Amino acid sequence: MGKYCASWSACLILLALMTGNLVRADDAQTEGLRIAQERKARDRGWDNSVAEMTMILRNAQGQEATRDMRVNTLEVRDDGDKALTIFDSPKDVSGTAFLSFSHASEPDEQWIYLPALKRVKRIASRNKSGPFMGSEFAFEDMTSFEVEKFSYRFIRDDQFNGDDVYVIEQVPQDEFSGYSRQLVWIDKAHYRVRKAEFFDRKGAALKILEFEDYELYIGKYWRPKTSYMFNLQTNKSTKLVTHSLEFKVGLDESDFDKNSLRRAR
Amino acid sequence: MVAVPAWITVFLNRPKTGLLGFVVLCLVIGLGAKNLYFRGDYKVFFEPNNPQRLAFEEMQNIFNKSENVAFLIVPQSGTIYDPVSFSLIHDLTHDAWQLPLSTRVESLSNYQHTYAEDDDLVVTDLILSGRATEEQVLWVESVVSGSPELKGRLVSENGDVAVINATIQLPDGDQTQEVIEIAAFARDLQTRYQQDYPNHRIYLVGMVIMNDAFAVAAQNDAQTLIPLMYLLIIIMIAILTHSWAAALATLTVVVGTIVIVMGGAGWYGIYLSTATVNVPTMVTTLAVADCIHVIVGLRYFLGKGLNRKQALLESLSLNIKPILITSITTAIGFVMLNFSAVPILAHLGNMAAAGVMIACLLSLTVLPALLMLMPVNTAQKDEGKHAFFRRGGQWVTRYYRRILPYSALIVLVAGGFASHNELNDIAVKYFDPDSRFRQAVDVQERYLGGMSNVDFVVYTNEPYGVTEPEVLASVDQFAGWLRNQPQVHHVLTFSDTMKRLSMNMHNDEAEAYRLPQNRELASQYLLLYEMSLPYGLDLTNQLDIDKSALRIVAVMSNLGSNEFTAFETQARQWFVQNAPGLRVEAASPPLMFAHIGERNMQSMVWGTVLALILISGLIVLALKSWRLGLVSLFTNLLPALVGFGMWGLLSGQINMALSVVLSMTMGIIVDDTVHFLSKYQIARNQKKRVSESIHYAFETVGLALTTTTLVLVAGFGVLTLSDFALNSDMGLLTLIIIVAALLVDLIFLPAFLMWLDRDRQVSNGEHYG
What we know:
The structure holds 2 protein chains of 2 kinds. By secondary structure, chain A is α+β, with helices and mostly antiparallel strands. Chain A is 17% helix and 45% strand. Chain A contains 3 helices and 13 strands. A 13-stranded antiparallel β-sheet of chain A has the order 6-5-4-3-2-1-13-12-11-10-9-8-7. In chain A, a hairpin with a 5-residue loop joins strand 12 and strand 13 (237-247). The model of chain A is unreliable at 1-6 (pLDDT under 50). Chain B has helices at residues 6-13, 15-30, 51-62, 83-96, 134-145, 176-196, 207-223, 225-241, 244-268, 279-303, 308-335, 343-364, 366-373, 383-398, 400-418, 436-448, 469-483, 494-505, 519-530, 561-578, 589-623, 626-650, 661-685, 690-719, 725-756; strands at 67-75, 102-106, 112-117, 120-125, 162-168, 200-205, 422-423, 452-459, 488-492, 549-556, 583-587, 653-654. Chain B is an alpha+beta fold. Chain B has 3 domains: 6-40 and 212-428 and 593-756, Multidrug efflux transporter AcrB transmembrane domain (Multidrug efflux transporter AcrB transmembrane fold), CATH 1.20.1640; 68-205, no CATH class; 453-587, no CATH class.
């Protein structure tokens, strides 16, 4: 090593810089994890919710398509949430209901009720990277945030629309994820995700997600009114608008099983 | 004799100052070349509001783009159904996702197979990692035999070849750099897997690989044959004029012209394209011709004992008018290309027109200045050669009665053969059969039929319209019709997916393999299926966002452009007859190129023919003679006719490069005509007899025209050695037309004049005043 260093003091400085970087890399992971844990902690205890939403899909040609749906969600402690989605439009799929149990590390479980066939079908698949209803949102973008789903690294402090934010990197732990990594902008005041950038499996920038018009529910839980996903590679986009959202409406496990699918209208 | 204007004589009096100005001009304008960039994308052929371009872009915006890289895996064992092949397919599929700009990778391995299990719909990759057992292999084989979406597309009919197909989303504008990067990455993977699996052959095909092969072939020729062409032109000039100084002076004019034209284009903001890259070659032809006229004239008068300056002045005064007429008329002809609907042809026209004029100015100024300073060898006299041409003239005037009928016969036969030519661009045939790309394409043709595809889009203009039973039934029948066409090798259609889902929903019973009976059922099957697919394997390549349009992909033989467009017409006809309510559009890169080829050819050939006619009109004005102008119409058009007639005899296949040949040779055709006719007119105005005037024209321009032709023949002859058919065909046809132009002007033209002017053996001069 001495051969490359002009003097011992220079070597020492170099050594200090190298170990400093190592320590800092370690710190970045701890800090990233802390932010993720805090984000999750601030969003616990809402129990269940009912929402009405519209998805507006847009392609590079400027054509639009809309899908209306209701989403019932049940919070599950220490695992992914359960969600029941009922499609109201387009007309041909109206009444179709979709039940999913997302899991932090296991494959998700999914059932679908087809009114035209009057049957419930379980979808046995490991795929969670695919598009939800042909939109730019993947299944994995729609399911609940769980700390175990990613490893973390703090990147930098930054500003987003005038607010102080942390920028952290999330690397999916599931080999079936469609992403190699994500960059997430989280505001320091409320630990809300304001923006996310998704990178495909070859590491190229794929999509940008932005959340707008956050509103506070039952004095504790922040939810965005609008989520906007833009695909950088295909120039397609999807806007997800929440029309109404209620928390703690008294839903329980029995509202999220195969039988509840048939009852859903 | 014409007085030499002052702007020319100044270069003779102060050659050094003149040359300094020339060098400064070259530097200043040449700097503009840094602004030049190459655009190889299809859009350069179409104006932004072109309906075909809009239709194609609409399809590209609604569905994903279809440029691709495909790996062909050929096991030596003759079957891909074994564990080793499976692990190769699986791993290479996985790695192919890393190809730059890839958005989708499909193969046997990640094919999303669906089947029923109790009330479950199971969706799974066909080959799972680390589970390539004999049992698994047999299962996959049975799945493939019942899947029309797989068989013939990702696996060959006989199971002897597997395909891994990666879809690439190329950016707009210049894609050359991306194409080269992607191809290099793909070749890297190919080499790596070839080493790991020595019992398999891996080949690379696809649009991106073809574009790369194009770029490489063009580059190879640009680095070897084109410099060789210029070298040969210079050597030929040196030999034929016995003067290295003359050769170097010509080279200076040629290089100066190219630098100024290309630099000027750069300053003006014109990009390079497949058409405008030919501009340097085009302007070279006329620049060489201009210089040779001046040089041969100089040597002629030096031989008569004049001093260098006097001889130069004489040569210039003799040549200035024909050189100006040739250049101006040719330039106007090139400007005519602005009427073409193809933007890059307008660029080509304007650049070539500017080039022709610059070559004209430089050969009248810079060339004489250089010749003043450089030693021009006068030891060897050209007198013998001029005498040879005089005897040639005498032979023609003596036997013109026999020459004319033979000429007419040759022209008629040539015209007959010219009609044998058909426009047929088969892009893969541009490559030598020994080239790596062509071999891969041949393998693909042998096992899978071809690499070309035609995409049909059915628009219903209604959300979820594609699930309407009548629409699905029409699509299914159309797919059936496509499958009955001999040139179609595979059809990917959503109706097959629907049938499969219907079967899955009914516990995989074979009789349930049919289209759903009602729209709700079909829509809900579709929703269910959509919800189960992974990233990159969704249905966006077949369905639009509101399910109102669907795309059917037909994989075809590598057809010629006219066969493609004929097939498209037939397919549209099917819809008119069988499903008149549906709007259908066909588009794909090969189909686009077929249309481009036809378009390009028509605008190029007819544009040039019109230009040649217009030029004859201008010659009427320049020579102030109706009669000679009409004669020039023949001599301008006949070389093209004879050239394309020869081509009909030799090959009969016209590709895109050949359509620019006529423009490329236009300058030389006009040059030969104008110089011969203007010398003939000078003699006639001196009240010489027709035969004497012809002898005079032979003596004064025969040597120059022949020298130019020999020089260019040698130069373009080099291009015929290219492995790349686009270049070798272009070289050969240019050569044929240039030779035809010379023969027309030295044999047919004088014979025709003898016959035409036979009543006016003693001219009263009125017609030529």
